[in-house]
Write a structure and sequence with these properties.
It is built from 8 helices and 2 strands; from the N terminus they run H-H-H-H-H-H-H-H-E-E. It starts with a helix and ends in a 5-residue tail after the last strand. Helix 2 packs across helix 3 and helix 4 packs antiparallel against helix 6. 64% of the residues lie in helices and 3% in strands. With 174 residues, it is mainly α.
């Protein structure tokens, strides 16, 4: 499915083509994923977390460790690193989703859900910094608002490269 979405685009890829390429009956594809949106969501979910384990990003050890880290600099640097890894795994699929969302209501709903998840994850990071603000060295601690601004700047919702090849932005979803 990933290859077909990349080669044909979301709109031109059919369940039947996915079924034929994967040598799985269409009924099985529908039973496992319910729809083309379900397939794209499954591909994105695996790409975001990096494996097919049923563990949410926020519950994974590296994220939990960073949320508990008392040093805000370590937290932000760690989350930016995680965001870069996610971006490298999801960029192509995310571009497909953004393009499809312009004309397909199911893809638009999926994009909306991923955006909500990303914002929820960024909010969780900002909230994790709030207890740190009561420490003696407060000058190093960003406020929740500035933490959200920083996260939004380094982890905005659209991924990809410009024509010059420079990175435009990245995604962070938990």
């Amino acid at each position: 499915a990933r290859m077909l979405f990349r080669e044909r685009g979301y709109g031109a890829t059919t369940i039947e083509a996915i079924s034929e390429l994967s040598d799985v009956p269409p009924a099985t594809v529908y039973r496992l994923f319910a729809s083309k949106r379900g397939i794209l969501k499954a591909l994105l979910d695996v790409s975001i977390v990096g494996d097919d384990e049923a563990v949410a990003m926020a519950d994974r050890p590296p994220v939990r460790s960073l949320l508990a880290d008392p040093d805000p600099t370590n937290q932000l640097a760690g989350f930016v690193g995680i965001a870069a890894q996610i971006n490298s795994r999801t960029a192509a699929l995310y571009r497909i989703l953004v393009s499809a969302a312009a004309s397909d209501p199911d893809a638009a709903a999926l994009l909306h859900e991923l955006t909500r998840q990303r914002q929820e994850g960024q909010g969780r990071i900002a909230r994790s910094l709030a207890p740190i603000s009561s420490t003696p060295n407060r000058s190093r601690v960003p406020s929740r608002c500035s933490a959200m601004a920083t996260l939004s700047a380094v982890c905005p919702p659209i991924v990809g490269s410009s024509a010059s090849g420079r990175s435009r932005s990245m995604i962070f979803a938990t």
